Structures are given as C-alpha cells and as structure tokens.
Amino acid sequence: MNKTSLVSLLTLCTAGMVPAVFGQKTMKQRPNIIYIMSDDHAYQAVSSYGFGLNKTPNIDRIGQEGAIFTRACVSNSLCAPSRATMLTGKHSFVNGKTDNRGGFNWDQDNFPKQLQKAGYTTAMIGKIHLDGLPQGFDYSNVLPGQGNYYNPDFIENGVKKRYPGYVTKLTTQFALDWLDQKRDKTKPFCLLYHQKAPHRNWLPEEKYLELFEDRVFPFPDNFYDDYSGRSTAAHTQAMEITKIMGWGHDMKFENDPYSGAPTNFMADINRMDDQQRKAWRAVYNPKNEAFLKNKPEGKELDQWKFQRYLRDYLKVIQSVDDGVGELLDYLDKNGLKDNTIVVYTSDNGFYLGEHGWFDKRFMYEESFRVPLLIRYPKEIKPGTRIGNLVQNLDFAPTFLDYADAKVPSDMQGESFRKLVSGKTKVWRDATYYTYYEYPAEHSVKRHYGVATDRYKLIHFYYDVDEWELYDLEKDPHEMKSVYNDPAYADVQQRMHKRLTEVRTKYGDSDASDQKYLDAFLKGLKK
Predict the structure, then answer these.
(1) By three-state DSSP, how is residue 347 classified?
(2) CATH 2.60.40.60: does it fit domain 434-525?
(3) Which residues contact 518 (CB under 8 A, 6 or more apart)?
(4) Could you please report the per-residue DSSP string of 8-48?
(5) Are strands 121-126 and 189-194 parallel, antiparallel or unpaired?
(6) Disulfide-capable partner of 351 in 160, 263, 357, 481 (CB 3.0 to 4.6 Å)?
(7) DSSP class per residue in 364-411
(8) Tens of pLDDT, residues 317-371
(9) Residues spanned by CATH 3.40.720.10 within the chain?
(10) Which residues in 431-456 are b (16+ Cβ under 10 Å) and which e?
(11) DSSP character for 150?
C-alpha cells in the first residue's frame, strides 16, 4: 500500500465511514447521531400515536423505519430542566437545573463533551433555553431564551444576529448547512437539532396560516373536568384554556375585544415585516372581526377559544414535520442514512384540552409522557414498538453506548440500546419524577412521584401535604385518585416502598427538596 492510499484509508476510518483492518484488529464503524427535539410537542399530536388530530408523515417515518416508544417520559416536565437532564444524564436535583429561572452550570460534564473526547464533531442548533455559551459543541447556533417565531435572533458561537424569516425554517436551514458545509467530515458527527415550535404562543408559518381553519376539533371527553377526584393541586392550577389564555398572546387579537386596549400580541405583529404582517392579518383579522360582531358566551366561547388554540398549535407542528422531512431526505441523498441514528422527541408533553388544560408541569400522563421515535437501520428493525418506561435521563448514556464512548459513572440514566434492538427485555420497572417551579406561572404545586407500568404515586408538598394514587389500567385519564381507597391499601403500601427505593437510588430526599425551595424563594426576592 502506498503512502497516499494509507492516508486516505486512515481518514475514512477516523470519519467512521468504513471499518479498518490492521492485522487482526478492527476499528468499529461509529454511527452519526441526530437528536431532534421540539418544544412542548404532545404525543397526541404525532399521527403515528393514533389520536387523529393531525398528520406528521415525516416524523412518523422515523418510527416506521425504526422504533416508536409508547411509554417514554420525562423526569421533570419543564423546558430547561428537561434539557439539562437530557444533556447530563442526571436528575434535576443532581445537575442543579430544577426550574426555568435559575442558571445552568455548563462546566459540568455532558454527553457531547464525552463524544468530543471520543473523536466526534458536535453541533447544537436551535432552542436550548439554558443561559450561557453551550459547552461540548464545536459549533452552536442557538436561540436566546424562548426565541421568536418571526425574524428571530440566533447566537452563533456566542455572536448574536437577527435573521429574516420563520424560525422553524431557519433552524432547519442552519442544521442542513452545518451538515453540508461546516462540519468536519473526517469525523463521525452528533447534531442536536432543536425546534422552538410548538411552544406557546403558536405563530404559524405563512403557508400554513389557513390550515385547519375549516376543521372543528371535538373537546376531549374530560374538557369540563371538575377535579373532584383529585387533591388541591388540580383545583388550584392556572392552566385552564377558558380562564387563563389571554386575548393577545394566545387568542391573537391586536386589541382586547372587550376593553379595546392594545394587547401583548402587538409585540409579535410589530416584529413581522410588511409582507408577513399582511399575510397574517388577511387570515386572522376577518375571523376576529366576526367574533367582535357576535361575541360568543358560555360553552360557545369555550369552543371558540379551544379551536383557536388547537388550530394554531397544530399549524406550527406542520413546519416542524417539514423540517424533519428535509433532514431525512438529506441523509438519503448523501448516503448517510444507514449509519446515522435519528431520534425525534420533545422536551416534555403537553395538554391539548385534556382536563380543560394547556401547558405541562404535572406528573399526569399528558405532560409526563413524550413522543419518542428512533431509527438506526443497522440495529433497529422497522416497525418496532417499545412499551417500557424510558426517560429523558437515558439519552446521554444511550448515545455514548452507541458511540463506544465512556459513560461517566455519575450519569443516572441507562442505555436503552439493547432494549430497542431486541437484545434484552430486562429494564427498569419504575421511573422517578420531580417538579419544583412553585410558586410561579401556572401555579402547579411542587411534587414528586414514582410511576410503574400500571400505577402512579404522587406527593404534593410545600404548602400542602397530599398524596394521589392512580390505577392507569382502570383510570388511564387519571380522573380519580384511589390513594384512600381501602381496596388499594396493598398497592399504596407497595408504591410507597418503591418510591423510597427510587429516591434512595437517585440520591433525592426531603432535605434536597428544601435546598432547592430555599434557592428558588431567594431568587424570587431578588
């Protein structure tokens, strides 16, 4: 072999494109990783989960060509804490990011840092919602905070710049540009491609402004839930569509329909350019004017608000699905499909009118569960379905496992690589959950809990001391707690024991709860 051929072979091996043989030693081909995370994308709004609300053919394709998880969940149903857990493989009370207000310590270890050490080139593009310059990435181009739908700012490697256009399309454009032009093609890659949508306040792309406008979505069966089967927390939340959603930010009125005062939606309208604003007003203004001429009341008003919310929410998801399609097509056209792991998920679940709610935060199923689809042709059989309890805690060790990289001993998640490939059926029988951001927006009380395949035990604390227990087999919508039901006395005892075990396993305690409560309250005073 001449010198030129040897150099070429070594370059290909380093990139993970072909296996290299040196005598009897073989360097394994390492997979590329693309982790797609949207924000607040309910599993009910991914068509492969079968709820019939919308169609997401490109996201569905990942599961059809790989696996779909039906019991994937989060350890803290809130944007920033979920993302911190995803990066670090640690619970909120260990990585320090317990709510959306406090800072995040980027100096701590995360899986992209370990991938860099293993020879990967890494990038983060889109929303991360963690302050500071992202660490562990050779390239970053992220939204500041929540970001904006129209003409957003991005921070590219620490430098802030505003871009004309629509945030979902721009995020996809930047991701494809990195894959095609900016990455080091001599190395395997890991791309974190994170969309802002469908986070509130749901401003659709111009081409989807009229989508679903001729469709009337039915109320969920428990839309008018009176919370009689639950404890104080369900009664005192501030998440009800009919009571909490505002005329501006949520309902898209430039002026309050009752007082006539300008609304906070003016900030969104003013951010648009003339063409964007004209297109928006052409669709929404006639409908708003019709509302003003005959203002609905009672259940008719509830119906109007629900339709406006759900239509806008589903519209912004169509742009996310388009972006997934563009990315999958890029992999196909460039010969990267077979050796690239593609994951689609969300940072938390979301309520689409169940219990009359929007938002997330509770440990109840709609916010606790997330969509999770994964494709890796070399190991995952098309059409695989996984019903095990996996968590966002598990992504970090899973990706490091696939990359044959070191999994730090302090990571608390578990690799689901063998589970999804069918090489093992052994898996955890319970997941642990914590929520800390109270008192705060939406008024969801602090709680922690444990979930198994069938049962869920939740403890609400701080200004209350109340317990809830659910039998998900008999009560999948969690309408009535059976905590004090004598028929469930044995189940209650077993679940308390399991809760103690998982808290001990992960190192959580009442003292830890108090520590983060004190820090949170101190931050409020500032």
Answers:
(1) coil
(2) no
(3) none
(4) HHHHHHHTTSS-EEETTEEEPPPPEEEEEEESS--GGGSGG
(5) parallel
(6) 357
(7) SHHHHB--EEEE-TTT--TTEEE-S--BGGGHHHHHHHHTT----TT-
(8) 999 999 999 999 999 999 999 999 999 999 999 999 999 999 999 999 999 999 9
(9) 30-202+314-428
(10) bbbbbbbbebebebbbbbbbbbeebb
(11) B
Tens-place pLDDT, residues 265-306: 999 999 999 999 999 999 999 999 999 999 999 999 999 999
- Chain centroid to Cα 219, Å, comes to 24
79's CB contacts (< 8 A; 6+ apart) are 39, 40, 100, 129, 199, 347, 348
Is it the case that residue 394 has pLDDT exceeding 50?
Answer: yes
List, for residues 419-436, the tens digit of each pLDDT value. Answer: 999 999 999 999 999 999
> Could you give the percent of the chain with pLDDT greater than 70?
94
What's at 388, amino acid-wise?
N
What pTM was estimated for this model as a whole?
0.94
Query: Looking at this protein, which amino acid is placed at residue 103?
Result: G
Distance CA(363)–CA(237), nearest Å, equals 13
Q: Which residue has the tokens 């690589």?
A: 417
Per 3-state DSSP, the chain is made up of helix, strand and coil in percentages (nearest 5) of 35, 15, 45
Q: What is the band of 526 on the pLDDT scale with cuts at 50, 70, 90?
A: low
Dihedral sign, Cα of residue 147, residue 148, residue 149, residue 151: negative
How many angstroms separate the CA atoms of 129 and 145, rounded? 5
Residue ranges matching CATH 3.30.1120.10 in the chain: 434-525
Specify the length of the chain in residues. Answer: 526
Whether the CA torsion 362, 364, 366, 367 is positive or negative: it is positive
Architecture per CATH, 30-202+314-428: 3-Layer(aba) Sandwich (3.40)
Q: Is 180 helix (H, G, I), strand (E, B) or coil?
A: helix
Per-residue model confidence as pLDDT tens digits over 45-70: 999 999 999 999 999 999 999 999 99
